[in-house]
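Q: I'm a student working through a structural biology exercise. My instructor gave each of us a protein and asked us to get a predicted structure, then write a short paragraph describing it. Mine is Site-specific recombinase XerD. I'm not confident about reading structure output yet, so if you can add a plain explanation after the tokens, that would really help. Here is the sequence I was given:
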Amino acid sequence: MAPLDTTRLAPVLHEYFTAYLVTQRAMSDATIRTYRDTWRLFLRFLAQARHVPAHQLAVTDVDAASVLAFLEHLETSRGNSAATRNLRLAAIKSMMAFHATKAPEQLDTAARIHAIPVKKKPKPQPTFLTSVEAQALLDAIGADTWTGRRDRAMFALAVQTGLRLSELTGLHIDSLHLGAGPHVACTGKGRKRRTTPLTTATAAVLTGYLHERKARPGDVLFPNPQGRALSPDAVQQRLSVYEARAVTSCPELAGKHVSVHTLRHTAAMRFLEAGIDAAVIALWLGHESTATTSMYLHADLNIKRAALERTRHPDTPAGDYHPDDPLLAWLQSL
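A: Happy to help. First, here is the predicted structure for Site-specific recombinase XerD. I'll explain a few features afterward.
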């Protein structure tokens, strides 16, 4: 094997993606796609800044200053969140750490890039839909076209199971089992397999959809017109269209940004409202620990009110506290 050219960026990236991530690290397809997208964005940014084609960039074009400029570009020009910024930074750090093992002269540069801190961000409260809002969203999906029937089946499945977006788009026809004990099998984070039961209503929707789906190309469960998996952007775009339609019948949706992750939160909140233990919800959603699931405990004020009612003294009237009228309170104090 010819020695790796450590001066040009192209061969280093080629070995990083084809040999290191796949063979040595055995990274998941989702992680590789995320890292790939990061470097596509970063290469375009560098090529424009250096006024050279991307394939002619040198490894020395990647330094702490260029990385910081790229991160600033992500936030100001592309409007990316702190979470996305941190994800892109992690992908760059990973590649530069790999390169430093091949080119010790780049250790200082890699260390400077590694020292770039992640941006802290406040943890947002999870947005979720009530049962009425979720049904209004599904009802807004027309069933008079193939794409409408596909989308209704896809989002009905998402609301009931709480699958992640990558899990949803990664499903194949044989992921569904609609006989006795209907369920869906998916591969989640860390390539962990997870099986999720289906309700009778969801299974009925999917049974009708699957009968029509088998006449179309490919084996992806929710395909695009070419039979390939839908892109994350396509799924979100479709969901935004239906959210806009649903606002007319359910005005409460107007103040919410609905994403597939919102539907995932919705599934979790339904379980929590039904009194299901957080450990069971964590298992259902594929969380590593119940610590992640605990965020739902803070999301719904009604759950906190119910907990307060269970600890209420018998002589204390039920309901929320309301201060006395100031005049009556003053008279009481006399």
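A: Here are two points you could use in your paragraph. The two ends are 95 Å apart (CA to CA). The mean pLDDT is 84. It's a good idea to check both against the output above yourself.
Q: Great, thank you!
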